[in-house]
Amino acid sequence: MTAATLWDHPLSALLAHNNLTAAAYLRRVADQHRALGYGGMAVRKEKLTRWKRHPPGRPAQLAIARLHGIPPVEVDRLGWPDFLMLAFPRDGAVLESEWTPAGTLHLLTDMGGSVDLDRRGFLVVTASALAASVAQWVTAAPAVAVGDRGRRVGAEAPELFDARLHALRHLDDIVGAGQVYTAALVELRLITDLLRNASYSEEVGRRLFSCAAEAARLAGWCAYDAGRIAQAEQHFLTGLRASGSAADPTSGAVILAFWANLRYAKGDARGALHLVDSALDDHRKITSPRVTAMLHARAARAHSKAEEPTSAWRRVDAAFAAYASAPPSDEDLPSMTWITHGELHQVAASSALSLNEPRRALEHFTAAVTHTDQYDTQRETRGTAIYLARQAEAHLLLDDVDAAVDVGHKVVKLMGGVDSARASDTLDDLREGLSGHKHIPIVRNFLDYVAA
């Protein structure tokens, strides 16, 4: 997967889906505008660019809705540009399917059926849909035993899927999203095939749904890492449904934590906090202290993005407090071994940077790799590159240009074998920060080196 041709707005995606130029699309909108009794409408292509920045007038919005078969009431209910999401059929299926095992299986089949590279790089789940989905997750109907179809499978099947998914998680750490995304979909298809065509006990069925939830989460994370935000949200919501069918609140909490990361990174800190706090509403159902620590860490980042320092540092403290009760990593969930004191320090450092506290950020960046329970820089190649780029940004805020450039070279070296749009975006941010110092030779040489 590549983020090179991502669509940045629903209008861009609609033009691409319908294979229309800007002028052709505007002519169709103008026809609807006239049919609704609003008269003629200019069709200069600059209008689309303006609409991406500022909402069009209500007559134009109604004309666009009519063109795509969207009821007028949705224009007012969802607003611009959220009502345009209703023009994408898969979004509707993911949001509207029943929260039952049968509904989950339908979505798992759809989402795992093909490598559909949805190139929409913007959020597609509205605030109201986000809240409704989490509410339905809490009351989702769990799976029951199936004894009247296909061959019978036992506990060995989910155990094997757990092992394969564990290997994929480590591969994702090393090579990034590209290849792992396709592999996660293969696992999703295999798991879904058993759920649809085999017989199993209630316990085995629920464990298989848990495996499906993790495969969907991993696919969602890989899609997010490649910058394909719409696709990531579809996978996260499908995984959340699978965790509901599995009656596995811990698995659902993990998905909500990763989804929260996406939401605050794309500017929706409030939505991220809603996801995290919903997962923590009944924290006693979460079986892993590391998951609880991760949720508080995600909340800290969301508060830092919202420029709320008191709340951010309170959640950092809560993350460390939850981690204090965690057992040794080999006694916790295999998917949570990456949560260490060092990881929490990296989150604290990133939060401090968002809050414009560069000295505090550097203290935590240093603690992340010097603590006895340190951040694993050998395994977490992509994460190390991202955190180092943020460390360079902290140096730059303190006017330590030499240190920023030195760390920048480490980032470039690490990113050589990693396929990650997030890491690339982080490096772009560092380049932009350094661009104001081009008059300094080492900066100019670094920027020339990166551009080469």
UniProtKB/TrEMBL annotation:
State the superkingdom: Bacteria
Stored SUPFAM superfamilies: TPR-like
Note the Gene3D superfamilies from the entry: Tetratricopeptide repeat domain
Q: What is this protein called?
A: Transcriptional regulator
